């Protein structure tokens, strides 16, 4: 970045800030002010199985539905979830392994809608369900994080449809804590952290599920160790 | 019309109105007590809460002590990632920038994510004057907008409305703003949420421009973070072509890693959740995903004045969680509107007089809108010592002294006697009818005596004069005033 045009407001704000900080010693560098990080990086030691169990429990606490499957059972499970929902149109982003949805297709009367730039918000609003993977999941908070990587698509596809099925590979995609999650994420990617279905606390400060995002969140824990 | 805070009465008069409103008091009591217990449970889950809190305060202090440095890094990184950064010294500048940016798109309407900052600047009214309609999309902000009302809580701006009132507003007013409420709408929260979903969906789907705030801005990466529950934030942040975020300069944090502290503290303090349903993080623009134009408007509007006050500076650590409102005995009785700004409760009582200065009766009265019970400090996730700042501001109001006002070092004159006596005696007296709260306050007054400014006009004495309660053994405000300033004349009242 070179030579930005003169902006009087910018100069005024910066000058005010510098005057306001007259008490800060001149030799103090930004990193000099100490930040004691005595907090825990995880809250407890867990085996992989315990971590996955905690994720499941916390997802359910906030009314996500949790399913478990091995690779062999996954297609049948996903087909069943979509059928039970009565989904006719399902948006599927690039990078979702074709075998996941091997059981779903024209034969089953379900239209697979690819996530393309031409897909308008109006068309997306007429989609019933979306199936994605994720970047990682956080056990301690019951959170899924999507980063637009393979199998996750643009942010809007997990937002406009009312039913989101998210597949988490366990245990490799599960971390214990928020600090661990941030360490594995790339801030330059658009990130969406999802903890349960859309909710509001706006009516008498009590949580109610289901406002603008998907009102039904189903999480499939795909066991990498199982056949 | 968009209502504004212009011409709001001083705290005691506004609070008196609220205290007389039994429905309002019941609404506030129910809501704040519900969240209070749940917050305590969510916090108790983390054994290292105290360490997180210490780290959060230190991160914010580091940022504030070098705010110019971090803002320039932020600007550089947002720009590099495809965003455009604008600077606004005050509310009018911010509103002019946003209005121009919206006009440049050719659009006549915008969707908005809940934002204290644009409430503070009065953006909706400014847009309206320019012929641009702003649609609030947060459920509680929608309730406020439909009711031509003002927010009364940081997190839940319509906390003063109960479900029956929300139902009536939806039924009577939604049609004038777009899709009417469904026939036969009841006051079940799930149905009310469904009505909001249906009403707003068409607006989200056609919106070309969105206006948001942000919870955090990461200097080292240029990343902005919005923490929310409903998904209206995601709609606004990802569907439109142009996104304009108006953010106070103090929302900066130095490093990506610092989010690990705040993302643990904020949801638990705010909605008593391990994590809020949705958090969006974006850095500039991303090809093919989300808005193709991103503008960040950095707002000062009095923040650098607060920064110049070495005691008051800690107020800028605030992450707007609203935990201090939910535990405050004065807020619970007075309601949010009495504070005369988008920042109600204990944090508002210290923030508003610093952002706006203490030249008028409302701002002069706010530092007295407290029993000094200290509950706000205890729950504050960034350890703002609100009682300390309150006492500091009381001293400024009473004795005058140096302060920075719109960037200029100024000598503030003591407030007029009559206005002041009214503020001190009535702010707390009217709203505190709870003996336990007063006892706690008195204990704290005693414990914190060392922190008190020289010659504090004992507000505790003023309360006990208005209540049949054990008196605080201190000279009365009136006696003190007569002795130290002394014309000894008549009864005080708000000027």
What does this molecule look like?
- The complex is a heterodimer of chains A (227) and B (495).
- Chain A has 227 residues and is α/β, with parallel strands linked by helices.
- Chain A has a single domain, classed as NagB/RpiA/CoA transferase-like (Rossmann fold).
- Chain A is built from 5 helices and 12 strands.
- Chain A is globular, with a radius of gyration of 22 Å.
- Chain A starts with 7 loop residues before the first helix and ends with a strand.
- By secondary structure, chain B is an alpha/beta fold.
- Chain B has 2 domains: 11-44 and 322-484, no CATH class; 63-299, Rossmann fold, CATH 3.40.50.
- Chain B contains 23 helices and 12 strands.
- Chain B has helices spanning 11-19, 22-44, 49-65, 67-80, 91-105, 116-121, 123-129, 139-146, 163-177, 189-206, 232-238, 259-270, 303-307, 323-326, 329-334, 345-356, 361-365, 375-379, 386-399, 417-429, 435-447, 459-466, 477-484, and strands at 84-88, 109-112, 133-136, 209-212, 216-218, 223-228, 242-248, 252-253, 278-283, 293-299, 401-405, 408-412.
- In chain B, a hairpin with a 2-residue loop joins strand 11 (401-405) and strand 12.
- The model of chain B is unreliable at 433-473 and 486-495 (pLDDT under 50).
- The chains are: A alpha/beta (227), B alpha/beta (495).
- The interface between A and B is large, with 80 and 104 residues.
- Chain B: Residues 73-285 form the LUD domain.
- Chain B: InterPro entries: 4Fe4S_Fe-S-bd, 4Fe4S_Fe_S_CS, FTHF_cligase-like_sf, Helical_ferredxn, LUD_dom, LutB/LldF, LutB_C, NagB/RpiA_transferase-like.
- Chain B: Pfam families: Fer4_8 (PF13183), LUD_dom (PF02589), LutB_C (PF11870).
């Amino acid at each position: 970045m070179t030579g930005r045009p003169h902006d009087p407001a910018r100069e005024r704000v910066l000058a005010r800030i510098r005057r306001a900080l007259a008490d800060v010693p001149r030799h103090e560098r930004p990193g000099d002010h100490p930040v004691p990080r005595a907090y825990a990086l995880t809250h407890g030691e867990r085996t992989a199985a315990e971590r996955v169990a905690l994720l499941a429990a916390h997802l359910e606490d906030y009314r996500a539905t949790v399913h478990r499957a091995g690779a062999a059972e996954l297609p049948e499970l996903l087909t069943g979830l979509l059928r039970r929902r009565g989904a006719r149109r399902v948006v599927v982003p690039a990078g979702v392994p074709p075998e996941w949805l091997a059981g779903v297709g024209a034969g089953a009367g379900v239209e697979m809608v690819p996530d393309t730039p031409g897909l308008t918000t109006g068309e997306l609003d007429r989609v019933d369900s979306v199936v994605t993977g994720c970047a990682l999941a956080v056990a301690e908070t019951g959170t899924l994080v999507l980063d637009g990587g393979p199998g996750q698509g643009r942010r809007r596809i997990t937002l406009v449809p009312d039913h989101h099925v998210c597949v988490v590979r366990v245990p490799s995609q599960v971390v214990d804590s928020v600090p661990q999650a941030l360490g594995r994420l790339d801030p330059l990617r658009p990130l969406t952290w999802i903890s349960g279905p859309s909710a509001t606390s706006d009516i008498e400060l009590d949580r109610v599920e289901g406002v603008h995002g998907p009102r039904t969140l189903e999480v499939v824990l795909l066991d990498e160790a199982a056949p | 019309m968009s209502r504004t805070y212009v011409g709001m009465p001083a705290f005691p008069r506004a609070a008196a109105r609220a205290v007389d409103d039994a429905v309002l008091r019941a609404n506030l009591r129910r809501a704040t007590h519900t969240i209070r217990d749940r917050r305590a449970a969510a916090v108790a889950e983390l054994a290292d809460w105290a360490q997180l809190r210490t780290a959060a305060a230190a991160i914010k202090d580091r940022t504030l002590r070098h705010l110019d440095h971090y803002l320039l890094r932020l600007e550089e990184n947002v720009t590099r990632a495809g965003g455009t950064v604008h600077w606004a010294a005050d509310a009018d500048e911010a509103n002019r920038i946003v209005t121009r940016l919206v006009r440049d798109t050719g659009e006549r309407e915008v969707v908005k994510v809940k934002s204290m900052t644009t409430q503070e600047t009065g953006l909706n009214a400014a847009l309206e004057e320019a012929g641009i309609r702003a649609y609030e999309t947060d459920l509680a902000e929608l309730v406020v907008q439909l009711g031509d009302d003002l927010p009364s809580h940081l997190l839940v701006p319509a906390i003063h409305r109960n479900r029956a009132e929300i139902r009536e507003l939806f039924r009577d007013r939604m049609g004038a703003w777009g899709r009417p409420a469904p026939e036969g709408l009841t006051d079940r929260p799930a149905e009310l949420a469904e009505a909001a979903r249906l009403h707003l969906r068409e607006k989200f789907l056609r919106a070309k421009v969105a206006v948001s705030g942000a919870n955090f801005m990461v200097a080292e990466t240029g990343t902005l973070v919005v923490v929310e529950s409903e998904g209206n934030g995601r709609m606004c942040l990802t569907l439109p072509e142009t996104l304009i975020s108006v953010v106070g300069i103090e929302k900066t944090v130095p490093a990506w890693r610092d989010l690990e502290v705040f993302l643990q503290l904020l949801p638990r303090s705010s909605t008593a959740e391990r994590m809020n349903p949705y958090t969006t993080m974006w850095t500039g623009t991303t090809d093919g995903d989300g808005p193709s134009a991103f503008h960040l408007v950095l707002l000062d509007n009095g923040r650098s004045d607060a920064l110049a006050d070495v005691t008051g500076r800690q107020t800028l650590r605030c992450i707007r969680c609203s935990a201090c409102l939910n535990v405050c005995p004065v807020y619970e009785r007075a309601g949010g509107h009495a504070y005369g700004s988008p920042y109600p409760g204990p944090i508002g009582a210290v923030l508003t007089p610093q952002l706006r200065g203490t030249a008028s009766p409302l701002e002069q009265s706010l530092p007295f809108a407290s029993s000094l019970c200290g509950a706000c400090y205890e729950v504050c996730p960034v350890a703002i010592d609100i009682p300390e700042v309150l006492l500091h501001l009381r001293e400024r109001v009473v004795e005058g002294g140096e302060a920075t006002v719109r960037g200029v070092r100024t000598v503030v004159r003591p407030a007029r006697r009559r206005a002041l006596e009214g503020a001190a005696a009535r702010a707390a007296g009217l709203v505190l009818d709870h003996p336990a709260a007063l006892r706690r306050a008195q204990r704290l007054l005693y414990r914190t005596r060392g922190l008190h400014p020289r010659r504090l006009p004992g507000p505790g004495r003023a309360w006990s004069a208005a209540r049949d309660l054990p008196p605080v053994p201190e000279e009365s405000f009136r006696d003190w005033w007569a002795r130290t300033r002394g014309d000894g004349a008549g009864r005080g009242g708000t000027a």
